[in-house]
Structure formats: C-alpha cells, structure tokens
Specification:
Strand order of the largest sheet: 1-2-3-9-6-4
Shape: globular
Number of domains: 1
Distance between the termini: 51 Å
Number of strands: 13
CATH superfamily: Cytochrome P450
Radius of gyration: 22 Å
Structural class: alpha+beta
CATH topology: Cytochrome p450
C-alpha cells in the first residue's frame, strides 16, 4: 500500500497512479510526508468519488471519513453521532485508545469526548472566559504580548517564526485568559504538547511519550493545588479566573477529578497548539501567495480586510484538519454507506472547506471572499468555544508580523525554503515545527 495517492489529473500523476477517480483504494491511507504536505489533491478526488470513505491512519485504525461541505455540515450536527469514547467498539479501542492507562481514563474525559447533558454542563463552565466581549477587552494586552515577542527577533536578516513567535504567543495569551500564574506558565514545557501525537506500544518513541504524559500530569496537579489556594483569597469570586472556577466546580461536586484534570489538559494543550499551527499555516499560505501578502500588508488599515483575510486563511488551510472521533450507537446509514456501531466517524474540515460546490474557485486564495461560512472551528454543539479568542490571536499575530517585519519573504538559505518544510505527522493537525523566513529589518 502506498503512503500517498498521486493525482491522476496531472501528467505525472497519471503515470504514477494505477487507478482512476473511481478506483480509490479501500481503505485510503491518510499518512506519509506527501499527504501531510498537501492533502488537498486527495481530498478533491475523495469528494468527487462520494461523501464517505474508509480510511486508515498510521496506527492501523480504520475510520469513516466525511469529505464534502454539505455532508460535513450535516454530520457535525447529527444527534446520532456521539463523542464519548465509551461508544467505540473493541476494535477501535484496541488501536485508537493508545494513550496508556491511567492517563487515558484521567485525561480523556474533557469536552471533546462528552455528549449532552454532561457536555452541556461542562461547556457552560468555560464559555464566559472566551466570550467575544471579554476577548475584545483583552485586545490591547494581546497586542502587547505580540509586540514583545517581535521585539526579541533579530533586527535584520531573518528568523524562525515558530521558535521566535508562534510557539510562544498562543500560550502567553492562554495563560492570561485562563488565569495561569506566571511562575506556573514559566514551568510549562511545550514538549508536553506532543501528547496529542500518541505513538503505539511498540514504537521506539513510546517511553518518551509516556514520560511526557507523566510530566504533564504532575504539572496539572500543581496547577490544581495552586488554584485551590487562590480560591481562598479574599475577592477571588469577582476575578475572571477560569482555572480557579473549574477547581471550585470540582470542589462543589460539579466535576469529577478526572473531568477537572481533563479540562485543564484540554485548555493547556488543545487551547494553544492549534493556534500555533494555524499561525504557521497562515504565514506559509501568504508566503506562497506574495501578491496577496503584499495586498494585506498594504491594506492593514483598510476596514475589515484583516478580518476577512483571517477567515479566508482559515478556510484555505485549517490547522485542525480532521475532527476527533464520533460513533453511532447502532449500525447506521451515513449518506448511503452503512457504518457499524462503534466504528469511528471523522469529518475532514479541510476537505469541506475546499468544496467547490460551496465555495466558488475553492482552491483559490481570495482575501475578499464573502460570505465565508467555513468549518475551521467545526459546527453544532461542539463548535470551538475559543473561536473568538483564536480569531483575535490570529489577526493580531498576522497583522503584527506583516507590519513589523519589513520585506517578509521565504528564507533564502539552501534547504530553508517553503518547498523544504517538514510538516508535523500529527493525525488531526496541520502545521510545521520550523518556519525560517527572511526580512529586511524589524520595525
């Protein structure tokens, strides 16, 4: 089985591909460096062949992938599809639930893996912290954080914008928003974020993966202890301290200890890594479209342009490529395909966002595209609660980098260009761990 599927619409693809549009393999492999660097030709072929496909992930788990926009929108709102891992069948659990115990039981019962009514009550606990009104009030502080990071970049020549900016900015913002004390924020090891890229029991990287889990669990325990102490301070109830409110909800019996730890885990990892990746995918897209980069840089004062650009960049290449698992409780029809109970169903947000039936010239980057009802943040009851914050972060990050790094362009050193980027092998996400760029000077 090949790691990637060449596009038979091209001359090169026709020579390499032994099957046409109606002969996609089953399952379709969703892994390999070519697939990760550009999955969109494959997604186009899958959309044209039908809305549901059997796919295989690196772990060997098979799933049912939904690809078209209308099908994705419908699936994301389908009440028959549950998110709780308990709904997965034995085969799914054997291959997909590879986060070891006890961590799987203790860190995997957060919002993404809950169904109503539990999901409803847990989600209610976080909504105020990420409300659009509060996000707007924080914009001056978010701008200060972005400018401080740019101030530390070299004055001329260039830099790695992951190491110098994208790896730090989302976490700094998150710490402000959720009430993570500075001394604890300084202790957070970004390497712990790799726990969302699990490796199988036989993988040589398994010991390092398990060490990350243990380190993160110890850190979460320290966060909970500190916030429990903070909650005893006079005036705490009037503060906007999400972590403290979650600890208080646990102490009041609204959350189990596993649910509390899982929600802290979700905030610390899922609350920042996707934004780091999205900053990088947005910058890569603009660097690959220099005329659009120039237009945006020259029009940062144009009302609404940056906001429209953020939406279009989210649509064009979303960092959250695939949703997490969903399950039917009984054998069910999914757009003409019978899906067995407990098999995993996954929606491709990236494939939906490039559907030409919903977006004219879907593969073209159009910063003025409107309306732009992309699905980068999902849809339905599991719509990302932090979407308003993410939009603000992304707009500030992109606007600040374009305005302050004069002549921003791809790196010029051999081996550092856009064609040489190494995309992270995460199953659900798109991004790079290194993004070298050149610029004339830092303003």
């Amino acid at each position: 089985m090949t790691d990637t599927i060449p596009d038979p619409a091209t001359t090169e693809g026709a020579a390499r591909c032994p099957y046409g549009y109606d002969r996609l393999p089953s399952p379709v492999p969703l892994y390999g460096p070519e697939y990760k660097s550009d999955p969109y030709p494959l997604y186009r072929r899958m959309r044209e062949a039908g809305p549901v496909h059997r796919v295989e992930f690196p772990s060997g788990i098979h799933a049912w992938l939904v690809t078209g926009y209308q099908a994705a929108h419908t699936a994301l709102n389908d009440p028959r599809l549950g998110k709780n891992h308990a709904l997965g069948n034995d085969n799914w659990r054997r291959l997909a639930s590879i986060m070891p115990e006890p961590q799987h039981s203790q860190l995997q019962v957060h919002l993404l893996h809950q169904d109503p009514p539990k999901h409803t009550s847990m989600r209610r606990l976080v909504l105020d912290a990420f409300a659009p009104r509060r996000v707007e009030s924080l914009r001056p502080r978010l701008q200060e954080l972005a400018d401080a990071l740019v101030d530390r970049l070299p004055e001329t020549g260039g830099a790695d914008l992951v190491a110098g900016f994208a790896a730090h900015y989302p976490f700094q913002v998150l710490a402000e928003v959720i009430g993570l004390p500075a001394e604890l924020a300084d202790r957070f090891d970004r390497d712990w974020g790799k726990v969302v890229q699990p490796v199988g029991p036989q993988d040589p990287g398994r010991p390092a993966y398990e060490a990350r889990l243990r380190g993160l669990q110890t850190y979460i325990a320290d966060v909970v202890t500190r916030k429990r102490s903070d909650c005893r301070e006079p005036g705490w109830e009037e503060s906007e301290d999400l972590l403290g409110r979650l600890v208080a909800a646990h102490d009041a019996g609204e959350l189990s200890r596993e649910e509390l730890d899982s929600m802290v885990f979700q905030l610390l990892v899922a609350g920042q890594e996707p934004v780091t990746n999205q900053i990088t995918t947005m910058l890569i897209t603009l660097l690959r479209h220099p005329e659009q980069l120039d237009r945006l840089r020259g029009g940062l004062d144009e009302p609404g342009l940056l906001a429209r650009a953020v939406e279009e960049l989210l649509r064009h290449d979303a960092a959250f490529e695939l949703t997490t698992w969903r399950f039917f409780t009984e054998d069910s029809d999914l757009f003409g395909t019978t899906v067995p109970a407990g098999d995993s169903v996954i929606v491709s947000l990236c494939a939906a966002n490039r559907d030409g039936e919903r977006f004219p010239e879907a593969d073209r980057l159009d910063l003025d595209r409107s309306p732009n009802a992309h699905l980068a943040f999902g849809h339905g009851i599991h719509y990302c609660p932090g979407a308003a914050l993410a939009r603000a972060e992304l707009g500030i990050a992109v606007g600040t980098l374009l305005s302050r790094l004069s002549g921003l362009r791809p790196a010029e050193a051999p081996g550092d260009g856009l064609a040489d980027l190494t995309w992270i092998p995460a199953v659900l996400a798109r991004g790079v761990n290194r993004l070298p760029v050149a610029y004339d000077r830092r303003r």
